[in-house]
Amino acid sequence: MSLRVADVLALPGLQSLQLRAGAAGLDNPVRWPYVAENEGIADWVMGGELIFVTGINHPRNEANLLQLVREGHQRVVAGLVILTGEEFIQHIPRSVINEAEHLGLPLLEQPYQLKMVIVTQAIGTALVEEQVLGRSRQHVLEQLLEGDYRSLEVLLQRAKNLRLPLAVPRQVALFKLEGGERLFSTEPPDQAERQLQSHRQQLQRQLEQSLSELGDALAPICQGEHWIALLPARDSQHEQRNRRAMMKLLEQLNQQLAPLRLFLGLSDGDHRPEHYAHGLSEARQALVAAQSFPERLGLCSFNELGVLELLGAIRDRTLLDRFVENILGALIGDDSRHEPVLMPTLEAWFHENGNLALAAQRLAVHRNTLGHRLQRIEALTGCSFDDPHDRLNIAVALQIWRLSPPRSTRNSG
């Protein structure tokens, strides 16, 4: 894992640093220390910095300190360190402490007696050590994920020496961040680059935080536009927990990363180190399906693929749209002109595996009403629910329709 704000507080020689607010962000990774010399920091940071505010080169009143806290939160910095003493910043105002606590931004107080050279040297040394250790750990994990090793026994011994918790069965999660080209086409190059790097840092930080909450954390591996995470998954309950946690993370990040878009493919669980490469292959297949139907999917698990694996391999989307139109076009058109009931009826019937009583209960209608709707569906489509080939065509078309861009089912006019 990266050097965290909590690790900085524990470094030898830095005992006089005190956390004043923002304990929720103690796991924020620190990329490097940065001394703020200007009035604001928004234009000078990329995300992940531990910002030091001295007050020597610029007066720091309460309003300015509040500004720095808010800009730091906006730019996803690791934390803010305010140096206090008799000459420049005498104390940290209560409003600044409260704002940092509200935003979850770690706010540290450093006495002027603790020299900056000691602090920056301690952090710099720790960063170098952590980077060296992190690269070694990542190299071992990449070899396992790629199946690129001569002796599994030797590689696992290296993992043990590096304190990698590989005894826990894992599920492979493969993320992909898309939309960088669109960002550069709409923003000036320097602004687009700054925004992209900030988004990547935000993704890295929140992914690390989510992994730590799942326990037995392994640092995510960044490879260009992809991030690989190894989630602990001892059984199916852990897999379901992982899916819920990753779906929550995906929804949260996609709101924050716009116009970029994050997609996720999940492997099956219970992969041991010798099977990580197979797990990554499963996650790649699931990611392809997630990307092929981005409007409603965004996330796909390997065990959910089914026919999606085949549909995702069809690059010409017009073929899928034409298939849906041929099978379900009459129903979709009827729902657009009247009260939309036929497509919901079809979905309920398939969801309940053809059980009329359960489907009627699901729709909160009488069973006879459901029967009349099904007869109308057969008449409009020319298909019979008794014909297995017709049922297959309808089921596949319905699956494609579910994963297609949402459309109004009623006539807007």
Automatic annotation (TrEMBL):
Annotated ranges, domain Purine catabolism PurC-like? 7-126
Q: Which Pfam families match?
A: GGDEF_2, HTH_30, PucR
Coiled-coil regions, chain positions = 193-256
The domain of life for this entry's organism is: Bacteria
Q: Which residues form the CdaR GGDEF-like domain?
A: 151-287
Keywords from the UniProt entry: Coiled coil
User: Taking every annotated instance into account, which residue ranges of this chain make up the domain PucR C-terminal helix-turn-helix?
Assistant: 342-400
What family does the database annotate? Answer: Belongs to the CdaR family.
Q: What is this protein called?
A: PucR family transcriptional regulator ligand-binding domain-containing protein
Q: What's the source species for this entry?
A: Pseudomonas spirodelae
